[in-house]
């Protein structure tokens, strides 16, 4: 069986401090990639992940940035490139889940969900694309969800953001179909802080998925290394679930 090696590549993972993002950071680091670990406020967690990669002989840096803000994204990409080299793998993972019925969901909740779950992916993609085009190789993976394709009670903002992200992925895929590949990746229902919060809200949709248990986060991200490798050269704009 082929082993994937991403040695020589430089990845930026948004929302890499915990949950699915942290598992992606570890997996990319183990595959030999240099990894920039973005976070919003959990500095200690992000720094620890970066330190573990460096201790194992790799290169990594933790970078604070609110990825819904244009200037913060530009500064993050500039710093990651300066410290690790030009970014050729971007994983748009940062996300929030504000799960409330239509009568209780505020305008601010709706705006925050769309900014973090949808607009941030566009901003980060726009910031890294020139470097990827110059290098004539790039991978962008947008962490999507089954919620992109299925209405869920109490999830209107989240479903709207992920559905929008699916179309951003497919539309940009048509523009970058040369050497830069952009994919959606839907990890299932995974045991993270986000799920703890969703269960506490009473709006849990776990009964609607085929497996009644939550998948461990390390299992959920295994397929993503394939999308980041040259092995996926024949795929364009797919949403991989
Ligand atoms: P999580 O445990 O809540 O972690 C969210 C991550 O996003 C954290 O690293 C957080 O940083 C970061 N973040 C949030 N807002 C940010 C912002 N404005 N700027 C930068 N970083 C920000 O969530 P998760 O379950 O790992 O989910 C990760 C992604 O997978 C999300 O896109 C989610 O929609 C998607 N997903 C999750 C599931 C699931 O079952 N868990 C299923 C399908 C898809 P801090 O730690 O610094 O706050």
How would you describe the overall organization of this protein?
The chain has 241 residues and is of the alpha/beta class. Helix content is 44%, strand content 14%. The protein has eight helices and seven strands, in the order βαβαβαβαβαβαααβ. Strands 3-2-1-4-5-6-7 form a seven-stranded parallel beta sheet, sandwiched between helices. β1 (10-13), α1 (19-30) and β2 form a beta-alpha-beta unit. The longest helix has 29 residues, at 107-135. It is globular and about 50 Å long. The mean pLDDT is 92. It binds NADP nicotinamide-adenine-dinucleotide phosphate (NAP).
> What is the helix fraction of residues, given as a range?
40-55%
Strand order of the largest sheet: 3-2-1-4-5-6-7
In whole angstroms, the N-to-C terminal distance is 22 Å
Cofactors, ions, other ligands: NADP nicotinamide-adenine-dinucleotide phosphate
Counting helices, strands and paired strands, the structural category is: alpha/beta
| Count of separate DSSP helical elements | 8
Morphology call: globular
Q: Give, in order, the helices and strands.
A: EHEHEHEHEHEHHHE
Low-confidence stretches: none
The total strand number stands at 7
Radius of gyration: 17 Å
- How would a crystallographer describe the biggest sheet? 7 strands, parallel
What percent strand?
5-15%
Which helices and strands, and how do they pair?
Layout: E1 10-13, H1 19-30, E2 34-39, H2 43-55, E3 60-64, H3 70-84, E4 89-92, H4 107-135, E5 138-143, H5 156-175, E6 180-185, H6 193-201, H7 217-220, H8 224-227, E7 239-240
Parallel strand pairs: 1-2, 1-4, 2-3, 4-5, 5-6, 6-7
Helix pairs in contact: 1-2, 3-4, 4-5
Bound molecules: NADP nicotinamide-adenine-dinucleotide phosphate.
């Amino acid at each position: 069986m082929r082993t994937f090696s991403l040695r020589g590549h430089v990845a930026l993972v948004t929302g890499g401090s915990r949950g699915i993002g942290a598992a992606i950071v570890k997996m990319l680091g183990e595959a030999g990639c240099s990894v920039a670990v973005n976070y919003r406020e959990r500095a200690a967690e992000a720094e620890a992940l970066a330190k573990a990669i460096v201790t194992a002989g790799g290169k990594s840096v933790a970078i604070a940035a609110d990825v819904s803000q244009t200037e913060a994204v530009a500064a993050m990409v500039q710093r990651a490139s300066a410290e690790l080299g030009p970014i050729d793998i971007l994983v748009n993972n940062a996300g929030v889940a504000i799960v409330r019925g239509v009568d209780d969901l505020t305008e601010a909740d709706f705006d925050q969900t769309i900014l973090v779950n949808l607009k941030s992916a566009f901003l980060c993609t726009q910031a890294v694309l020139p470097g990827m085009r110059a290098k004539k190789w790039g991978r962008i993976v947008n962490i999507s969800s089954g919620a992109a394709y299925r209405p869920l009670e109490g999830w209107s903002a989240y479903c709207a953001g992920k559905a929008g992200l699916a179309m951003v992925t497919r539309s940009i895929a048509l523009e970058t179909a040369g050497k830069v590949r952009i994919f959606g990746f839907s990890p299932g229902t995974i045991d993270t802080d986000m799920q703890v919060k969703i269960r506490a809200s009473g709006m849990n949709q776990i009964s609607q998925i085929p497996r009644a248990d939550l998948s461990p986060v390390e299992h959920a991200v295994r397929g993503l290394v394939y999308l980041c490798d040259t092995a996926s050269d024949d795929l364009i704009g797919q949403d991989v679930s």
